[in-house]
Amino acid sequence: MVAPLRVGIAGLGTVGAEVVRIIEQQSRTWSVRCGRGVRVVAVTARSRTKKRGIDLRGIDWARNPLAIASDPGVDCFVELMGGAGDPALSAIEAALKSGKSVVTANKALIARHGLRLAKIAEKHGGALNYEAAVGAAIPIVKTLREGLAGTDIDRVYGILNGTCNYILTRMEQEGLSFAECLKDAQRLGYAESNPSFDVDGHDTAQKLAILASLAFGTKVAQSAVYVEGISSIAPEDLRAAAELGYRVKLLGVAVRTKTGIEQRVHPTMVPRSSSIAQVMGVTNAVTIDGVGLSPITLVGPGAGGTATASAVLADIADVARGIHVKPFGRPVAKLRVTRKAPMERHEGGYYIRLMARDLTGTAATIATRLAERKISIESIVQRHPDGSSDTVRANGKSSPVPVILITYATSEDAVRGALQAVQRDKVITGRPQLIRIEKN
Ligand code: HSE
């Protein structure tokens, strides 16, 4: 009979408390599922007296995370405090150095220090598991690292931030502004304490950097991710997208290109018929294009206590079973340095919304500037203030009117150059809106 796995948990917020509750509740089934029992033997958190609705009797209350990390009576250190630095970082380091296995839900820490920690884990023999760091209950880390270990991957992309997807969903369905929907997301507790982390795309960028490393066998490189958030998206963009057969999502996309691995986070037009376009509200989704395979899409809850606990428990189960995979699928020394594909070389279709002066020659000027850079227009629509739309025709009126263009595939460089020229020509007012189109 193998002795139970002794687990120590640092951090008893919503996720930590749920992990303790489920381990206790399922105490009988762990030994059946994993071949050995799992017991929580030590915990620590900022407040000892906070009501959590869990029974902590019989569990040692450690004075700090480091005390659990270095406790010889703990086999597996579970870090659920969050934060890219200390105390999480030094506690994880100490646990790995003492040969323990570590389970964490900390995306910021894995994105920033994952390689260093993986090296320590390799040297001392413990596991470093972080399934909950990306997409919570969606088993995307395991899918890329283990399920698709024998498949070459061309592209991985997804909706990795529930807050942004919630905001875009409400904006589209109710015609509300970005600011109104952000307020609601905060009221409902979806947004991070600093909403900029969600809505400016940084949360997605951290998750994408981890997925790119797993998909392409490269070193995690958050600094290689191009990031744009959703705050510039207006309800009229979502309306136009719907009319043109698209939906706007904040996507994280990592793709192999001729110039290297492109990693980018930005609002994206996706075909309305695609699997990813159907994902609404706080739900997350990831699509993987494997060479020779139809795309695989995983959809599920990407945040919340139970969803995150589900991934943490799966990681603990792996430790109990003795399943030990290199944190990034291969030894850190064998991970390649990411060759960052420059964003100016990105190729794809574009949605462009301009406020054009309604004067004879405006449409001709815009078309000329695009043609000069060999940008081919797939469609062009001028929307009159009364809501009707028609093919652009200069009608002599002087108030600006929205003009919406969809281009065929072109380069970022070309499209930005054309728009700068159009601005210099003074045939538009304000800044052009530019949304990249991602084909499925
Ligand atoms: N703020 C994140 C989200 C939570 O909205 O998806 C999980 O990382």
Please describe what this structure looks like.
The protein has 440 residues and is α/β, with parallel strands linked by helices. Helix content is 35%, strand content 25%. The longest helix has 18 residues, at 107-124. It folds into three domains: 5-133, NAD(P)-binding Rossmann-like Domain (Rossmann fold), CATH 3.40.50.720; 144-300, Dihydrodipicolinate Reductase, domain 2; 345-437, ACT domain (Alpha-Beta Plaits, 2-Layer Sandwich), CATH 3.30.70.260. The chain has helices at 14-25, 27-34, 65-69, 88-97, 107-124, 140-147, 162-174, 178-187, 195-199, 202-216, 235-243, 305-321, 362-372, 412-424; strands spanning 5-10, 38-44, 60-61, 76-79, 101-104, 128-129, 153-159, 226-227, 246-257, 260-271, 283-290, 296-301, 347-356, 377-383, 389-390, 401-407, 410-411, 428-437. Strands 7, 8, 9, 10, 11, 12, 13, 14, 15, 16, 17 and 18 form a twelve-stranded mixed beta sheet that branches. A hairpin with a 5-residue loop joins strand 14 and strand 15. L-homoserine binds next to helix 7.
